[in-house]
Design brief:
The protein is mostly beta strands and 225 residues long. The chain is elongated and about 55 Å long.
Length: 225
């Protein structure tokens, strides 16, 4: 019997991509997406059959694990999950808190490119505007925000971000608290922070004010795919 592939916080743990046909009844932000949410299993065929992948955290792009647009059913072990038709949690999205044997009923059959766990209170609304990750490539502990953060030390995420996902708006990320020191303008998209000199070096972040901030000397990064 081949091994079930596991993904933890977006990183592939199992080296093999061998498939497992599971039985028909397979059973972040101030914290990490992967902590306390339980897991889910996505299946290539309806009825929880065919090739399967177990996910325990955010997967921004199923193409990285050769499972893009292949999912026909999903079994939820626990937690609430958001699935989206495009990578990086964009496109048409749906919130799922129970197992679904036929995703075609939601018009999502073979049409899912990303998945992530969500807090129950957020499941009733939209996704976070910004998610920062403690590791490169959108992995590790995740911290989500929708508004200005003058001091990330207050949330135990100071100088911890190594990659970032921006789903809405344009943001100013700074190396010191209260938006001081060197700052960079980051637009919608995703990427690692090392190339722009902010790896483990963000202490505050806020929405970019074009009227006032445009006068300052900032580099601008747009990771739009």
């Amino acid at each position: 019997m081949s091994k079930l592939n596991r993904i933890r916080n977006g990183a592939i743990v199992a080296a093999s991509l061998a498939a497992l046909s599971l039985p028909a009844q397979a059973d972040r932000g101030r914290n990490s997406y992967g902590n306390g949410y339980g897991g889910a299993v996505v299946h290539a065929d309806a009825g929880y059959r065919g090739s399967a992948l177990q996910v325990d955290g955010a997967v921004p792009d199923f193409a990285r694990v050769r499972f893009n647009d292949r999912i026909s059913s999903i079994s939820i072990h626990s937690g609430v999950w958001e699935v989206c038709t495009d990578a990086n949690f964009r496109g048409k999205c749906a919130t799922i808190d129970t197992s679904i044997s036929r995703l075609g009923d939601l018009r999502l059959n073979d049409n899912i490119s990303s998945i992530r766990p969500v807090r129950r209170e957020r499941a009733r609304g939209r996704a976070a505007d910004v998610v920062m990750f403690s590791r490169e490539d959108l992995r590790g502990e995740a911290f989500e925000l929708d508004g200005d953060m003058a001091n990330l030390s207050d949330y135990r995420f100071n100088d911890k971000a190594s990659s970032i996902l921006v789903t809405r708006g344009t943001w100013l990320a700074c190396e010191h608290a209260n938006y001081r020191g060197r700052c960079e303008v980051i637009s919608r998209g995703s990427g690692d922070l090392r190339p722009i000199g902010l790896n483990n070096n963000i202490s505050s972040i806020r929405r970019y004010d074009q009227r006032h901030d445009a006068r300052r000397d900032h580099s601008r990064y747009d990771w739009r795919h």
